[in-house]
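Limitations
The C-alpha cells in this dataset are predictions for the assembled complex, not deposited experimental models. Users should treat interface geometry with appropriate caution, especially where small molecules or nucleic acid strands are included. An illustrative entry is reproduced here so readers can see what is and is not provided.
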Amino acid sequence: MATSLPSVAIPGQRLGSVAAYAAGPGTHIQQANIYASIAGPVVVDPAPPKTQSKSTLRVSRVIPAPSRGTLSGTSQKPRYNTLPAIDSIVLARVTRVQKRQATVSILVVLDESAANSDPSKSASDNDNVASILTSAANPENHSNTDELRFQALIRKEDVRAVEKDRVVMDEMFRVGDIVRGSVISLGDQSFYYLTTARNDLGVVMARSDAGNMMFPASWKEMRDPVTGVGEPRKVARPF
Amino acid sequence: MNDRRRVNGPPGGTRPPVFQSGLQSSNPSDRPRRQRQPAELRKIFLKTGLIPSASGSAYLEFEPSASLAANRSNPKSMIPPSSALKLTCTVHGPKPLPRSAAYSPNLVLTTHVKYAPFAARRRKGHVRDSSERDLGVHLETALRGAIIAERWPKSGLDITITILEAEDDRWWGEPPDSHDASWGIMNVLAGCITAASAAIADARIDCLDLVAGGVAAITEDVGASHSGSGRLMLDTDPAEHASILSACVVAYMPARDEITELWLKGDSSKAVLDDGDSRQGHDALIDGAVDAARGSYSVLSEAVKESILNAVAHA
Amino acid sequence: MSNPRQASSASQTPHLSPAELSYLYTSLSLPKGPIRPDGRSPTQFRPLTAETDILPGTNGSARIGFADGTQAIVGVKAEVEKTVLASDILQQDVENDLQAPSDRRDGAESTPSAAAGGHGSWVQMSIEIPGFRDDDALPVFLSEMMRESLVGSVTDAGKGRDTEMAGGLKGRLVINKRWHWRLYIDVLLLSQPLSYPLPLLSLTTHLALLSTKLPKLKSQGEEDPFFDDDWGVAEHLYPRPSPSASATSSQIRPPVTLLVISVGDNVIFDPNREEISVADAVLAISITRNSEGQGLKLLSIRTIDPPSRLTQPGVPNSENLSTMAATGNSDNAAAANPSAGQEEVPGVWRPRRGGIKRSVITELTRTVLKKGGVGEEVLEGLEGVEV
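Predicted assembly:
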C-alpha cells in the first residue's frame, strides 16, 4: 500500500487494505479494507519475522505516554474499559466465599500486550493498577460499586492444579483478598468463570485478621509482618 | 403515560402566557425569517469529554439564528424569535448487565432522552412522556446500526441525553395552540444522534463509522398564499417558517454511505423542485436530509479528531 | 421471553440458530426472487379474517385475526371535551370588552387556530400487548407511529368533495368553537405477538375507524352540544360517499401502515417473525389514497431496528476450536477472538451491521407507491371488507 497511515484515526476512517495488513483490535474489515472502529492512535505491530503473516494494524485504546520516567504519579490518565475475554488476566476482589466456589468482582483487566512484553515499557492501563488495588483493598471502599463491576466465579476445582480434591475454599480465599486470575469462560448471564490453577495466579494482596497487609510466605501461606501469624491462602507466585 | 409510582394530582391545567402581540398576528414583520441559503446549515458547536465521571460524553449546541442573537443582545420582547438546541450526552459503560437480564452475546444499548423541564416553551414533567420515549427508540435504532455490538458481549451501554434547550415546533409569537405538528422534535433527534455518536467515540466503543444526524423539510413561507409552493430547505428552524409541510431526519454514516435511521412525516408531495429534477418529493427530502447529515458529519469528525489529538498531546 | 424492558422496538429476540438464520437469509435473498418459508410471493400478505362493529359499547370497533392465531381488537370511543385554547379565550374577551375592530378579528381568524383546525392531542391511542408494560418501548413506538400518520393525513382543503374532512381527522373532531370530540383508540392484542404486530394493528385500526360513527349533533352553533340518540342517523367519522358520487374509491379512508423488509436485493412485505429476524432493513411506511384521483400519498416512513443485529453469530469451520482437534494453541485462540474483524464467510451467519443504502429506500418506497403496486393492492383489499 502506497498510502501512508495516519497517526490517529477516527471511527470509519479507512486505514489500509487487507492485502497489506491484518486487522487488529480497534479495527474492522469491510470490502477488503481495514477501517478504524474507535478513535485513537494507529499502531502497526510488525509481524514476527520468521512467519509469513502480515503485520497487524490496530487502533490503540490508550494514549501512549512518550516521556516515561519523568511522568509524575499525579497525572490522571483516562481509563478505558476493556472487557474480560477468554484467557485475559484479571485482578479481582473476593466478595464471598462458599463451600464450592468463591465469588469475586473484577477490578481490572490487565492489558495482554503489556503483560506479555517487557513490563518496564508498558504503556497501558497498568499504571493505575496500583491505585486501583490500594483503593479496592481498603475496607471503606467495599461499597456497592460491585453493581458496576463484572462478577466472576472461581469454582473449587479451578482453584489449583494439584490436589484438586483437597481444596477447602476457606483456606484459599477470604473476603477482601485481591486475586489474579485467568478467564476461562464468559460463563452464564451473570458470572464469568476464572481459574487460579497456575503458579502465577492466586491471591496477590491480602490483609490478616489483625488487619495488616500480609506478605507471601509460601505457595499456600501468607504471613502478617506485625503479629507473625500465618494464614492459609492460594498464593500467586510473586514476580 | 402516567407516573405509576406516585399518586399525582390532576394536571395543573396551566399554559404559557399569551401575549397580545401574538393575537395581533397581522404584523408578520416580527416573525423571524430564514437568512440562510436553502442548503446552508447552522453552525454547530460540539465538544467531547466534558463529564469526567462518564466513560464518554459530548455537548452539542446549534448556533442561534441571527434574529435570536440580536434579540439576546438587545431584548425588545419577551418572545424569543427562535430557539437554539443545546444538549448533553453521557455514555456509561460498558458495564455488567443487571442480574435479571438474560445472556446477551452483544452489547445491550439503552437510550434515555429527557427534556429538561425548562427546555421548551411548555414545561415538561420529570417523568418521560411518550414523545421522549419515542425519541429514545429512534436514537437507539440510529446508534445500533453503527455500533459493533458483538465486541462487547454480556455488557450494557447506557446513553443518556439531557436536552437543555429544545428546538421549538413553531414561532413563540404565534398562539400556543395554533398548530400542533411537532417539527422541533426532528431537529432535536438529529442533534441527539450527532452528540451521541461523538460521546460513543469518546467512550472508545467500537463503531463502524461516526453517525451524523441531519434534517430537511419542505416549507411554505408567509408570503406564499397559494399552496403548491413547497420549497426544500436543509436544517430548518421551525420558528423561521410559517408552515412546514413535511420533514425528514436521517442518521447517516458517510464512510459506508448508509442510513441507519430514517423518520419522515408529513405531506411531501407538494415539493417544488428545480426544473429537470424528476425526483419525487420524499426522495428529494431524504436526499436533502442526507446532505444536511454530511454537513454535521464534518463537525462531528473534527470534534472527535480534536479530542484524540488533545489526548495525545497531553499524554 | 427475555426481559421485556430490554426488548427494543423490533426485538422479539429470534429463537433461531445461526445455521437456520443463514439458510433463511440465503433463500430470501435469492436474486431470482425470494423463497419464503410459507411459500408466499414477496408482496403477498398472510390470510386474515376481519369483522367490524363487534362491540356495541363503542363508536366503532373491529377485529382481525391472522391464521397463526394472533388477534387484535380495536375499540374507538369518542367523548366530548371542552376546548381550552388560549387564543380562543382571549380573543373572546377582546371581542366582548373592547368591541374589537373587525380587522383584528379577521387577523385572528387568518391564523390557523386550533379551534378550526383541530389538535393532534385529541386523538389518543393506547396499545396493550401482553407481556409489555404500556410504557415499554414497543407499545409507545407503535402508538406514536400510528397516531402520527392518523393526525397527519390532512387532505387538501377546499378542493375535496367532502368538506367535512377538509381538515383531516383532526378537523373532523371539531364540534364548535368551544367543544370537540376526543377520540380514544384502544388497541388490544389478544396474545403475545408472534411477529412484529404493526401490520395487524394498523389494519385493525383502519377498519375500526372506518366503522366509527359519531352521533348526530342536534344543538346549533356555539351552544353546548347535545346529540340525537338515534344510531341510525349517526354520521360516520370517515364520511361515506353520497350515492350521487359514483366512484367508491373517492371515499376518504384512514391511512394504512405497511411493514416492508429488505433482504439482500429483495423487497418483502408482511414478514413473519422468522423473516424479519434476518432482515437487512425494516421500514414502516404509512400511505393513504390521494384525495383527488387515484394516486397514493406517502404520510410517513420510519425505520425499525431490525432484530437481526442482535442475533448470535455463527462460527466458521476454520475457526471452530472443537473441530480443530486439540490444537487450540494461542494462535488459534487469537484467530477466534472476535476483536479481530474477520471477513464474511459465505454460509456463516453474521449479525447484520450498518444501515440501509439510499437506493434500497427508494426501491422500497417505489414498490409501495407505484401504480398498481402493493399499496394500492392493500387498500383495494381493505375496501373489499364489508364495513
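Some entries come with short summary sentences. For this one: The mean pLDDT of chain B is 83.
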